[in-house]
Each structure stands twice: as structure tokens, then as C-alpha cells.
Amino acid sequence: MDAHLTPSPQLLADAERRYRGGPTVEARFDIPEPGFSVTVLFGPSGSGKTTALRLLAGLERADRGSIRFGGATWSDAARGLHCPPQARNLGFLPQAYSLFPHLSVSANLGYGLASLSARERRARVDELLALLDLRDLEARHPGELSGGQQQRVALGRALARKPALLLLDEPLSALDRPSQVRLRKELRSLLRTLDIPTVLVTHDRAEALQLGDRLVVMDQGRVCQCGDIQQVFDRPTDPAVATILGVETVVRGRIESIVGGMATLSVGSARIFAADPGGLGWEVFICIRGEDVAVERGSTPGSGSTARNRLPARITALNPEGSLVRLSLDCGFPLESLVTRQACADLGLSEGDGVCAVLKAAAVHLIPHD
User: Fold this and answer.
1) Run of H or E residues at 259
2) pTM
3) Fold of the CATH domain 247-368
């Protein structure tokens, strides 16, 4: 009766897979509403993302907990209930696309539609060819397709039975970097057109940010934090999550005072300012993203910026990373900065140079040390 009074989430997963002599992997998150959304399972290799996805798909059996979708119970370990993958109304795209090499694009798309009449199957394949821009490729075989084209065929096969939930395991990992960048936007647009909830596994920060609405951060088999994707990236709740999310500087510090909504912190031999975190206690972890740290020539802080923090520093390492350059700085504590190659060249920066690191108080995120 209560279920009729309070709408349940579209997906509610709280399950575990336990490996004898090995790790326990959690699938613990929810999708609040039906319709389009992308929930990203994010974390380093070996964190349990794919196992969590396989629990949803029914390819792994839960040892504890339950998985419910759209009012139906897919898995309940206490009751010994486990719906097999084919009984769950979902589409699954594994890392290896596993296309049938001897079948054409059309035949691959129609492979799971044996229950339909020939006319219905052809109509559905035609829909998918149009949706995925594959009309000119329908007679080709997988070996004649580019990586991006293979990805679209594999996605089409996962969509063929019109699933209510779509599961994607590293859908762009088999592609080269330029193709990944190009296809991220296309994939997001396509998923929006489909208007179905999607759970996607990735360890790529840019891919997560561009494709996702909600983020589930995993490490060593457990769910560390979940929520709105931008909120989780901007406000990690513990230093391990901050590191997983690519925050370059995570160091211990101490709040010395709070005046007028501004906290003064000691970190190493330096003092920096941050917005008052409100009730964290005095011992904290200080998190600063490299992209938020600007660099000015000379080691003496100037007055050309309104940024609250202006720290004399020395460049201890300088490493090019594509269009960016990563600077390792010593400013009384280790700090990293990401600047463009052009900025680095214009400033004539070299290892050992004295510079001024500049960052706003709002760019300093504090986590309680507990």
C-alpha cells in the first residue's frame, strides 16, 4: 500500500557480489525517475564498476541485497530470487562489442528479434538503421566497418528489443582518442532521443562529465559517493574520492581562524584562504584542482588579480600534456597547476623558476579530517 502512496525510484539497487577469498563488490545506487538520464559508474580499473553493471544485467548473482526496476524485483538474495538477463527488460553493451563477424549489419541488428515476424523484424531493423545513421552500411560486415561504426551497430543491437534500461560498459574505450572526443557528443544526443535511463561505466573523467547526469564513484568494490555529477566532482566528500576524481592537490591543513565568512588555513609553511566551510572542525584536507591555479611570472605576489590567494612558488617540474602543461610547484606545500602551452611559452617558464601561484578562495574545497 505504501508503494502506491510514495512513488518508488525507477531503479533501486542495494546488492553485493562476494568472491570467496577476494573482494566484495557493491551495486548501491538509484535512478530516481523514469525517462532519459545517464548514471555514470566511475572509478579506477579494478574498482568493481563492471561487476556492479553485471549485477544489474543479471550476469552476476547477488549474494546479498536486492535490485528493483520499475516496480519489478529483478534480484532478492534473501528470497533466492534471481531473474536471468533475458527476463530483464534491458539492453547491454559490453566493452567488446561481440558483433557476429559473418553477419551483415542488418543481420546483427535483427539477431535478437527472432520472436517477431519477418515483416516486424525488417521494420525494426529499418528503424535502427535510420536512428543510428547506418543505412548505407546495412550490407557490410563488421570487419569492413570503422570502430565508431561498429560501436553504433553494437548499440543498435542492444536497443533492438526496445529495452526499458540501457547498460553500457566503457562504450568508447575501443576507439582512438579523436574518435572518442567526436562520439561523446553524438552518444549523449542519441541517448536523449531514446528517452530511456542509462547506466554507463567509465574511468574517463571527460567522458563522465560530458555524458552523465548522476555520478556513482567506486573504489575497491564499494560505492564511495553518489549524486548530481557536477556536485560530486566539485564537492568530493573524502580525500580518496577527490583523488579518484582527478583533484591534483589533496593535502592536510588546519583552520587557524574564521573571520567574515573567510577561513585562514595553515598548510605546510604557507597560509591560504578559503570560504568558511561551516562546522568542519579544525583539521581538514585541502583540495585544489590544477585548472584553478593560475601562474604569474616572478616569485613576488603582485596586485594585478582579485584572487585572495597569491603564493610565491618555485617550479619543481614541468610536464607537457597535449595542449596543456602540468606545473609542479613548491609554495610551502606541493601544488599543481595546469596551464596552456601558449601561456607557458609566453611566460617563458622553466623548471626552477620563481613564480606566483594565484587561486581564488572559492577554488579551495575543504574536507573534514576524520
Assistant:
1) strand 249-259
2) 0.88
3) OB fold (Dihydrolipoamide Acetyltransferase, E2P) (2.40.50)
Name the pairing type of β-strands 72-76 and 81-82.
antiparallel
pLDDT of 181 reads 82
Q: What is the 3-state secondary structure (H, E, C) of 145-181?
A: CCHHHHHHHHHHHHHCCCCCEEEEECCCCCCCHHHHH
pLDDT category at 249 given cuts 50, 70, 90 is very high
Q: Which residues lie across from 258 on neighbouring strands?
A: 263
Q: Compute, in degrees rounded to 10, the torsion defined by CA atoms 66, 71, 3, 5.
A: 140
Task: Give the containing element (helix H, strand E) for 218.
Answer: strand 214-219
Listed in sequence order, the residues at least 6 apart from 184 whose beta carbon sits closer than 8 Å to its beta carbon are 172, 206, 207, 210, 211
Pairing of strands 72-76, 64-69: antiparallel
How big is the CA angle at 162 (ends 31 and 109), to the nearest 5 degrees? Answer: 130
* DSSP-assigned letter for residue 261: T
Q: Where are the domains of the chain?
A: 2-240, 247-368
More confident residue, 156 or 280: 156
* CA 262 to each of CA 92, 207, 308: distance values in angstroms, whole numbers, following the listed order: 49, 34, 10
Helix or strand holding residue 39 (H, E): strand 37-42
CA angle, 241 as apex, 250 and 295 as ends, to 5°?
A: 35
Spatial separation of the C-alpha atoms in residues 92 and 29, rounded to whole Å: 18
Question: At 271, phi and psi to the nearest 5?
Answer: -125, 135
Task: Say what the alpha-carbon torsion angle 217, 219, 225, 230 is, to the nearest 10 degrees.
Answer: -30
Q: Which helix (H) or strand (E) holds 347?
A: helix 341-347
Q: Which CATH class, in words, describes the domain spanning 2-240?
A: alpha beta
Q: Which of 295, 309, 311 is nearest to 359 (CA)?
A: 309
SS3 for 352?
coil
Any idea of the CA torsion for 85, 91, 95, 101, to the nearest 10 degrees?
A: 90
- 43-95 pLDDT tens trace: 999 999 999 999 999 999 999 999 999 989 999 999 999 999 999 999 999 88
